[in-house]
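Submission sheet (multi-component)
Chains listed below:
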Amino acid sequence: MKILIMGCGRLGARLAGTLDAQGHDVTVLDINQSAFRRLPEGFRGRRAVGNGMDGPALERAGIQDVEAFFAVTQGDNRNYFASQLAREVYGVKRVLCRIYDPVREQIFREMGLETFSPTSIGAQIMADMLLKGGPAAAGR
Amino acid sequence: MYVIVAGGGKVGFYLAQELLQANHEVLVIERDASRSAAVAEELGDNVMNGDSCEATTLDSAGIARADLVCAVTGDDEDNLVVCDIARQRGVPRTVARINNPRNELLFKKRGIETTISATTAVLAQIEQELPTTDMIPLLQLHSGLEIVEIKLPETSPIAGRSVREVLLPPESLISLVVDPGGVPRIPSGDTRLNPGDALVVVTRRECVNLLREAVIGSTHGLDT
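Outcome: structure written.
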């Protein structure tokens, strides 16, 4: 599958490595060249430098041809904005979006975006670790 | 009318001032605490320090009873989030400031009808003043209609013809003909179109390129 990942932080880099290892055609976009150092050794995908808030940068990263788009920068609003660009303007089939703020995440989900909030998921897992004994019990 | 203004920068501040002057109820939401305090010195209780992209902030600002939300921060992504949350909370009208003109399309697709882009406004002004530009956008109307001005070049395929003989794209109307001396006339079917005349035409946005072709001729792929 052709996949574009916006944001090469810890999550973006890890995600890119995982999907690349499974044989997918992955491009990672980040505003900062030095962010690519986080990619695992032997990563075969493409690295694109540019601002995902801007159509031309997304186009250079090949957004017209991808089947899936991940928005995983540090900014909730940036992730939301780029996801809507991917969905509304470029018609990407699957758009997945990280939103830290659980309240905003729920609203965006109700608007039809595929979102996930590491805050709510993390909090749930940690509470389960304490109360139900270990991460295994938290459904991992 | 109760108006929430997201962003207390220069645009937000002066906007709030004007709205207050016109006797509207206004609340400016500004994220930066010191900027917020500075604005409060002028606007008093009509300022709230908080992040307008957070639904909880908007809720405590009373968004449920707001008649209008204006998102005028310097970041397009923040303005989109504010408008989308406002509409989700049932606000009937949202206005967004757009910094990158390319983002206009996305805001329109999200159903945010009124967008204001200083960049686009300045560009349009420059285009009006450049003599080489063959077609000048004068005004965009909500309904998808647009008013443009086109100057007839010597080589125009319609030069020398009367208005009646000219075939324009659908829903397009020549509403004014300005001769090279600057004298405007409301045309009749018999009005003859001459090189150097400027036509003010009402058209549909999607027909602009067809119109250009009809009046100016082949554009050699140089469409803007």
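Remark: Chain A is about 40% helix and 20% strand.
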